[in-house]
Amino acid sequence: MFRTFGIALALSAAPAFGQASLGIRVPPEIGAAYGRLGKAMMAHDAAGVKGVWAEDFVVNSPNNEVLSRDQVIAVMESDFLDYKDFHKHIIFVSEKPEVTVIMGYDTMIPTKGPGAGKQVMRPFTDVWARRGGTWLLIARQATIAAAN
Questions:
Q1: What spatial distance separates the first Cα and last Cα of the chain, rounded to whole Å?
Q2: Is the model's pTM score more than 0.85?
């Protein structure tokens, strides 16, 4: 049975907290990248996001659209991606020398878009690749599973 491991992401005005998990280890470089990404998303900082997402990054987004990095950044810059009470729960990590897959779920309250104003549980799968000595997020699947 997995317990959750929380990474404090600054994706909202409220800090994100999680529970440490037994047996789940997030590579420190990727954990730091999640932190940088959260801060960049909160600040609507496109350059910061580009520092974590690969140029060919794609996401199957919560509104069930496949979007490129630039499309997501355009949505972010239009002030559409805002969350409060954001928590990341990591339940699975598979490390390989050049690729790491991380699975889990996020809980948050979006202020806009799908599930706005409701607590949302959003399962995710993140695929990280080592490129040029740096871990970059190359693909993400995130779909809303429940909104209360």
A1: 25
A2: no
Specify the pLDDT at position 120: 87
Residue 100 has pLDDT above 70, yes or no: yes
Identity of the amino acid at 147: A
* CA triple 10-131-80, angle to 5 deg: 35
Selection from 39, 141, 19, 36 nearest residue 88 by Cα:
19
Query: H or E segment at 61?
Result: none
* 31 contacts 7 by C-beta, under 8 angstroms: yes
Q: For the stretch 7-28, what's the b/e string if a residue is b when 16 or more beta carbons lie within 10 angstroms of its beta carbon? A: bbbbbbeeebebeebeebebee
- If one counts every other C-beta atom within 10 angstroms of the C-beta of residue 143, the result is 14
